[in-house]
Amino acid sequence: GIKMSYTHLIKETLDILDLSVTFNENCLTKEKYKGQICHIYRGNLIYTAQECIHCKHQIASDIVRWGTTTVRLLMNDVSEYRTYLELKKQRFKCKACQRTFVADTSVAKKHCFISEKVRWSVVTRLKKNTSMTEIAAQKNLSVSSVYRIMKRFYRPLNPFRTPLPKVLCFDEFKSVRGVSGAMSFIMMDGQTQRLLDIVENRQLPFLKRYFSHFSREIREAVEWIVIDMYAPYVSLVKKLFPKAQLIIDRFHIVQHIGRTFRNHRIKETNQLLKSKEQKHYQLGKQLKRYWKLLQKDERKLDYTRRLWRPGFKAHLTETDIVDRLLKGSPALRVGYQLYQDFLYAVKERDYVSFEELLTNNIMLPEGYQTTLRTFQKFLPQIKNALQQSYSNGPLECLNNHIKVLKRNAYGFRSFYNFKLRIMIRHGNALIFN
After folding, report:
1. Angle at CA of residue 232, ends 227 and 237, nearest 5°
2. E strands, 276-324, where?
3. Beta strand pairing status for 36-45 and 82-94?
């Protein structure tokens, strides 16, 4: 009776389900092993073999016990100690074929010294943003074991097996160093926000090859594609998605004009700071200090709270500051007005005023002209963006997750491993046992 309860207790502690494993009274020792004090549980694995694993011979009297063999299996930690199970396994000999074999257990796979429980615990950790090295340290494994477990349990879903969704989002992100073109391409379902696939290279010939794997019917089913202003995508879509309409992501439209205004502002600021006149120099300092208020959407500026502003030596609201900055620099004022008008048009989805803004701005510096020409070039796609509700927001969010994962892992060398890890993190990998 007592023997059973020892066995039961230890099996509960180590989470072992195999009925053939038994433990005796003094089975736990603390020893120094691999430079660390460890818990070592000693158990026995004994049962009567019913058939020979080699020749499938089934007469029990011909299968005899043939000594034992001892293996040491790595278990999950017990109260912060590294824990091993030293299992004395029964060996058998089959008289029919003269070969020997060893008793089998569900605790660990054959020829494997890492128990299944440890493997599963690694598998669950792979879903979080932990670095491989960190998982290896937590579980007392080598990093390559963690990679091996990842590759054994997970395969990325084959994207060519599933039809493409109605709305696709395209984007790129900086993946691993070895990728030619330095950026990898990523696509997502615009409605369900499911990650579809990650392609190593974002260059045009490469993507053409990739998308031509999908049949024409599947490609024709795509209605909308959301992209940023990366020109090759436009020709890619024309060729491969005959029925799809393009949408330029609204965030990128705003970002583009915002960037143009920022460059203008920096240029002005630098000129003012070089000036010998105290008044201009002072304005330059103020522009440098309060630049964020100029980038902000006009309607979000605070016009009620007066605070002491050291740059102006006065109590001012945010709107006051903007007024003073623009008063001092008339050149900036024109750019600012244009920037805010674009912001307003995009926010209000007002395509008519957006188009008007493109035509009547002749006075502006060269930087703006380039941006306006770009907008002109992408006008139909921008029109779609202002009329449809799809956007690349979820994809940009995913990109942020990817950056965090990459930073936590101190970078990845292999694109395949990186991709697999992202797929696992976002529920797009199949689990194999």
Report:
1. 65
2. 307-309, 314-316
3. parallel
Structure tokens at 306: 């007066």
Dist. CA 163–CA 28, nearest whole Å? 56
d(CA 62, CA 43): 27
Residue 27 near residue 10 (C-beta atoms within 8 A): yes
Cβ atoms of 324 and 316 within 8 Å: the answer is yes
Give me the helix-helix angle, 318-328 and 330-347, nearest 10°.
130
Backbone angles phi, psi at 8, to 5 degrees: -60, -45
> Which regions of 14-62 does DSSP assign to beta strands (E)?
21-33, 36-45
> DSSP state, 16?
-
Contact 157, 423 (CB under 8 A): yes
Any bridge partners for residue 173, and if so which?
184
The whole-angstrom separation of Cα 202 and Cα 328 is 45
Q: How many whole angstroms separate alpha carbon 136 and alpha carbon 147?
A: 9
CB 188 within 8 Å of CB 196:
yes
118 CB-near residues (< 8 Å, 6+ apart): 74, 75, 76, 139, 141
Reading the chain (433 residues) residue by residue, the pLDDT tens digits are 555 578 888 888 888 888 888 888 888 899 998 888 999 999 998 888 888 888 887 877 888 888 999 999 999 998 889 999 999 999 999 888 888 888 888 888 888 899 999 999 999 899 888 888 999 999 999 999 999 999 888 888 888 888 889 999 999 888 888 777 678 889 899 888 888 888 888 888 888 998 988 888 989 999 999 988 887 888 888 888 988 999 988 988 999 999 999 999 999 999 999 988 999 999 999 999 999 999 999 999 999 999 999 989 999 999 999 999 999 888 889 899 999 999 999 999 999 998 888 887 667 788 888 889 888 888 988 999 999 888 888 888 888 988 998 888 888 888 888 888 888 888 777 776 5
Closest-CA residue to 47 (of 94, 4, 105): 105
Give the residue carrying structure tokens 């039961």.
8
Spatial contact of 223 and 243, defined as CB atoms under 8 Å apart: yes
Q: 12 near 73, Cβ under 8 Å? A: no
Contact between 66 and 92 under an 8 Å Cβ cutoff? The reply is: yes
**Those residues with Cβ within 8 angstroms of residue 142's Cβ, 6 or more apart along the chain or in another chain:** 136
